[in-house]
């Protein structure tokens, strides 16, 4: 690459050993550059009906393919982007990209789930932010599920609840991610309006050998069914896990056994065919 075409954050990218401070300092410029050059993109992991195996939705997972650092995991860079105060523009880009993917390949009754950090959802302009990002991408609001991830505590739960119910009125679905871990606890389920719960993969893993984990999953499945919530088990890797989750009353699954995250085109045809996810 010619020196003249190098972006201004070259000092950061040359520091392979990953000094956190340096990464932070130039993250702002690096992120803008990466978005502009398609180094930040989405992969989609299918969600299947555990009875019929049909693809009934997908979760969008952000990827950063850095020219010098290689693939950086979202678990690593999302918290840093958050600390650097750049989560809103990144999330806008992610919402637009997901909306563009499903908007250009409409699949009635199927949704793309987009991860939204809990720190954003109580902001006063969150509703307009989400609506305009998705409209920019060209998808109907009813094509998107907002998957609330637990990285941080929600700053203002009452404001978050108001925002989420406005978004549901406009057609979005709301899912509580990583249910059973970290900040994603029972009180959130009481306080936040939602359409779906995702059982964290740590529970899926435990279900095999642990009686209490199984009882908790069964209780959550009952609660979900009584409250008209969809229940998704994430991180299913083995047929044994699949069978246990099924027997405990979980009807939707996601995980390497059901499909790895991949580019939208690789899943699009199956995604567009078959029966509806939303039967209620
Ligand atoms: P998550 O939302 O719970 O996403 C599921 C993670 O589990 C993904 O990792 C996925 O690739 C991985 N996974 C799926 N199936 C299996 C399986 O069978 N076994 C195992 N061991 N792992 C499986 P990924 O893509 O590295 O994402 C990690 C986390 O980063 C996500 O957890 C989410 O909290 C966050 N994240 C990802 N994309 C976004 C995004 O666009 N925005 C925000 N705010 N956070 C994101
Ligand atoms: Mg998620
Ligand atoms: Mg999850
Ligand atoms: Mg998780």
Automatic annotation (TrEMBL):
Domain EAL: from-to ranges: 24-275
Superkingdom, natural source: Bacteria
The protein, known as: EAL domain-containing protein
Native source organism of the sequence: Croceicoccus esteveae
């Amino acid at each position: 690459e010619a020196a003249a075409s190098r972006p201004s954050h070259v000092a950061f990218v040359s520091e392979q050993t990953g000094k956190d401070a340096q990464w932070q300092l130039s993250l702002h410029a690096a992120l803008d550059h990466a978005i502009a050059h398609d180094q930040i993109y989405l992969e989609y992991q299918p969600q299947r009906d555990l009875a019929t195996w049909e693809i009934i939705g997908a979760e969008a997972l952000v990827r950063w393919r850095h020219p010098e650092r290689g693939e950086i995991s979202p678990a690593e860079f999302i918290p840093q982007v958050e600390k650097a105060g750049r989560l809103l523009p990144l999330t806008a880009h992610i919402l637009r990209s997901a909306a563009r993917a499903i908007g250009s390949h409409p699949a009635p009754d199927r949704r793309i789930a987009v991860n939204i950090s809990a720190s954003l959802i109580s902001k006063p302009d969150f509703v307009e932010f989400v609506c305009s990002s998705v409209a920019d991408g060209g998808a109907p609001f009813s094509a998107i599920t907002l998957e609330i991830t637990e990285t941080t505590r929600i700053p203002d739960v009452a404001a978050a609840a108001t925002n989420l119910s406005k978004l549901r009125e406009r057609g979005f679905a709301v899912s509580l991610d990583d249910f059973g871990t970290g900040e994603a606890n029972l009180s959130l389920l009481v306080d936040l309006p939602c359409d779906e719960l995702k059982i964290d993969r740590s529970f899926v893993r435990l279900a095999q050998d642990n009686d209490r984990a199984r009882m908790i999953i069964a209780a959550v499945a009952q609660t979900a069914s009584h409250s008209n919530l969809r229940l998704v088990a994430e991180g299913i890797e083995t047929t044994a896990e699949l069978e246990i989750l099924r027997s405990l009353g979980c009807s939707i699954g996601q995980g390497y056994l059901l499909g790895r995250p991949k580019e939208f085109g690789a899943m699009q045809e199956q995604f567009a065919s078959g029966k509806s996810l939303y039967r209620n």
